[in-house]
Amino acid sequence: RVGLTRLAGMTVLNTYVPQGKSVDHPDYEVKKRFLERVRGLVLREMEGPFLWVGDLNVAPTDADVTHPENKRDHVCFCRDIQERFARTSEGLTDLLRTFHPDPGEFTFFDYRVKDALARNIGWRIDHALASPSLAPLATDCFVEREPRGWERPSDHTPLVADFALP
Asked: Is the overall model pTM greater than 0.90, yes or no?
């Protein structure tokens, strides 16, 4: 899914990148093609203030998952998808890592893992990535964990990016 809008003098691309199911499933190829197509949008829009947000279904580094050694073959963490994501997002600033560089900041907590939120067992697969002209205007970016603790919450929790726009 893709939503592209222009507001407050910037372009915002909101995507849901297909999860991919497994590396040997046809949906994994769909995920890879999706990222390639998004790269075209990123290149086209990157000259101005541009923000790419959403459930991107990629944990780019070991710091973005709990127990990375157990996840090397997962469709959201395998080396191939991390490299494709790096090419797609090249030139963009990862706002969460700008403001919170340490591991342990997660946006997804699996319901199948007992007390995942309380034990901080998660994944960072939701992102806010800003162009060179927009990134300096960011004043904060953080994971808002409280909604994940609500009754019947999503397995994702909000990622918030704040900007001081002119």
From this structure: yes
